[in-house]
């Protein structure tokens, strides 16, 4: 990991290490200068009671010069380390979020949103955390080698003290980080879980509040937050044990130097200058050596974070795009065909069996035609819609557009040809205009209004305080469910798709408006070519507009034909449509549709399914 960091930012790393080595050299130099000043200036001054001006000035200049160089070293190291750390974090945040968008829906189904957030945030941060002290640690290693060499040059007995203390310090750091590893990994995992629970309970705030589950949700969160607290306290406790030991060891070294040094001084093997230099060296070494400990202590957490980041970066299940481009010069409607498609969702956990959701599904949406997909809940209608726009790939069989397998199309060709309007509308926290254009080329205000008209949304948008510039709030909170649905429909229409897939996309819209929308899509007022439409529908008025109805039950196509044919020949179909109609009528009675103002005013009551 550290190798990867250095490979990615070699120049900045070099600057930081150079700064750190300069600092380390100056630490050693300062010890000898202080020793020199004591031996050559202070001791003579005490013995003779006077000191020469020249010696004093020289000592001051030497100390000042070393301090300046130290400052330069610290500056280079800190700046380099900061640049390196934050650049790596930003780069990997970008890579992780990009990867999220590349990974298929199946992968997203298996991974909680909270986990994704913590992968991109705290895991990336943790992964590159040791980069901050890394140049310091590398510089310190160089400094330790320099210190041992200079000790040997001074006196072998004092060097032996160094050889005992430095490896002991190093070993203590290694033991420390070994012990720390599992604790840090646990804390990191709990961080992700806590953010996962928090995300889920905010996301489901409506359910939590209306079902009166505040206390239980809080307890669920508190439980995991408590575990995180205990894990972090365990980390702190270990730190509390080892930190003082790491502080004390160099002090013991200084003590040993003074004892051994005093003996050597008496023997005449060294002089005062040398003794003071070495004793001072041990004192000033203590702090930089800690940098090695910082790196080692952060490594476990970093590795845990990196493992989680790498799981995202290395995740498989890409749905590679092909190279075929459908002729964009022909804005004619496209023909969609399913050929003997089988599909099943992957199990939530690898050891569980997956379930077959669709089998032997074959049907065609001829160019310019509207096909309604009707079936009970859970029969596989949304799955068929996902396959039609290649959110998922079939296990066997093919889905083709104008005879070309969807897997062979380029991303741009696919996105430019088909559009899915899903059951649950998603609106970005932006203006109405931005939500419809999504920055796609060639969609000006005129096209936006045309799309809004087709989606029967021009009325309410015109009535909004700032029109197209109105901010819709996070997830479109300032809009009703039906308004949101029509906005997402307009978004799909603005791209002039050649195949439009509507998955119960107008369920929250007044039934009459829904029929009006579909009628408008089939025969655009501007005389343009209609798109081919695959529509998941419940309401009789909507279904009746379709050229053909495909009736699915338990993932199989049970019958196909016109609405009238199916009503007459398929008992299950008739039952279903009648049941939906009754439910709709009951709703109509309960909601006072009488008070509905003209449909285009934007004030109509929304039916919430
Ligand atoms: N992401 C998923 N993971 C596993 N099973 C799923 C998933 N989505 C849907 N299913 C299952 O697939 C079947 C068909 O679902 P769906 O296509 O949503 O039906 P419909 O839209 O007709 O109500 C259901 O049994 C449902 O439980
Ligand atoms: Mg569905």
Automatic annotation (TrEMBL):
Its main location: membrane. One of its GO terms (molecular function) is ABC-type transporter activity. Keywords: ATP-binding, Cell membrane, Membrane, Nucleotide-binding, Transmembrane, Transmembrane helix, Transport. Residues 336-579 form the ABC transporter domain. It is found in: Cell membrane. GO terms for cellular component: plasma membrane. It comes from the Bacteria. The chain crosses the membrane at residues 12-34, 54-75, 127-150, 156-176, 275-297. It is a multi-pass membrane protein. Residues 14-301 form the ABC transmembrane type-1 domain. Pfam families: ABC_membrane, ABC_tran. PROSITE patterns: ABC_TM1F, ABC_TRANSPORTER_1, ABC_TRANSPORTER_2. Belongs to the ABC transporter superfamily. Lipid exporter (TC 3.A.1.106) family. This is ABC-type multidrug transport system, ATPase and permease component.
């Amino acid at each position: 990991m550290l190798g990867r960091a250095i490979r990615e930012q070699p120049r900045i790393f070099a600057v930081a290490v150079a700064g750190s080595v300069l600092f380390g050299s100056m630490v050693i130099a300062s010890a000898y200068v202080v020793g020199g000043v004591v031996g050559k200036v202070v001791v003579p001054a005490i013995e003779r009671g006077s000191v020469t001006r020249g010696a004093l000035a020289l000592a001051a200049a030497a100390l000042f010069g070393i301090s300046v160089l130290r400052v330069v070293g610290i500056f280079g190291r800190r700046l380099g380390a900061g640049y390196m750390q934050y650049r790596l974090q930003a780069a990997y945040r970008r890579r992780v979020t990009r990867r999220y968008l590349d990974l298929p829906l199946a992968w997203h189904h298996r991974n909680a949103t909270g986990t994704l957030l913590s992968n991109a945030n705290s895991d990336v941060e943790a992964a590159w955390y040791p980069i901050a002290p890394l140049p310091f640690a590398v510089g310190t290693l160089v400094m330790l080698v320099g210190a041992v060499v200079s000790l040997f040059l001074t006196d072998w007995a004092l060097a032996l003290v160094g050889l005992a203390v430095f490896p002991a310090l190093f070993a203590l750091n290694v033991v420390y980080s070994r012990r720390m590893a599992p604790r840090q990994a646990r804390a990191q995992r709990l961080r992700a879980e806590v953010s996962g629970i928090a995300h889920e309970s905010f996301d489901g705030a409506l359910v939590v509040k209306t079902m009166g589950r505040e206390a239980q949700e809080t307890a669920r969160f508190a439980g995991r937050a408590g575990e995180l607290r205990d894990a972090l306290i365990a980390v702190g406790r270990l730190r509390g044990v080892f930190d003082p030991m790491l502080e004390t060891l160099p002090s013991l070294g200084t003590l040993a130097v003074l004892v051994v040094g005093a003996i050597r001084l008496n023997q005449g093997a060294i002089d005062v200058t040398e003794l003071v230099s070495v004793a001072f060296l041990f004192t000033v070494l203590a702090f930089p050596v800690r940098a090695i400990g910082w790196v080692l202590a952060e490594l476990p957490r970093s590795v845990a974070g990196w493992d989680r980041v790498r799981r995202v970066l290395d995740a498989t299940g890409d749905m590679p795009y092909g190279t075929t481009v459908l002729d964009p010069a022909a804005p004619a409607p496209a023909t969609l065909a399913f050929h003997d498609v089988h599909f099943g969702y992957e199990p939530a956990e690898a050891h569980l069996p997956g379930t077959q959701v669709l089998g032997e599904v074959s049907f065609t949406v001829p160019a310019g035609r509207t096909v309604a997909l009707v079936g009970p809940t859970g029969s596989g209608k949304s799955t068929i819609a996902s396959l039609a726009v290649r959110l998922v790939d079939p296990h066997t069989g093919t889905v083709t557009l104008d005879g070309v397998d969807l897997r062979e199309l380029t991303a741009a060709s696919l996105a430019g040809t088909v559009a899915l309007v899903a059951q649950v509308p998603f609106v970005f926290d932006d203006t109405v205009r931005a939500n419809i254009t999504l920055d796609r080329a060639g969609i000006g205000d005129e096209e936006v209004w045309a799309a809004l008209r087709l989606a029967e949304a021009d009325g309410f948008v015109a009535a909004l305080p700032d029109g197209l510039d109105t901010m819709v709030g996070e997830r479109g909170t300032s809009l009703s469910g039906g308004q949101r649905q029509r906005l997402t429909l307009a978004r799909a229409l603005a791209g002039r798709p050649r195949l439009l897939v509507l998955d119960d996309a107008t369920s929250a819209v007044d039934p009459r408006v829904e029929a009006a929308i579909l009628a408008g899509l089939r025969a655009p007022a501007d005389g343009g070519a209609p798109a081919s439409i695959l529509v998941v529908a419940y309401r009789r008025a909507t279904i009746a507009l379709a050229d053909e109805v495909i009736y699915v039950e338990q993932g199989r196509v049970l019958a196909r034909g016109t609405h009238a044919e199916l009503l007459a020949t398929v008992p299950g179909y008739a039952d279903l449509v009648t049941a939906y109609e009754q439910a709709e009528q009951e709703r109509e009675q309960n909601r006072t549709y009488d008070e509905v103002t003209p449909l285009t005013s934007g004030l109509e009551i929304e039916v919430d399914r």
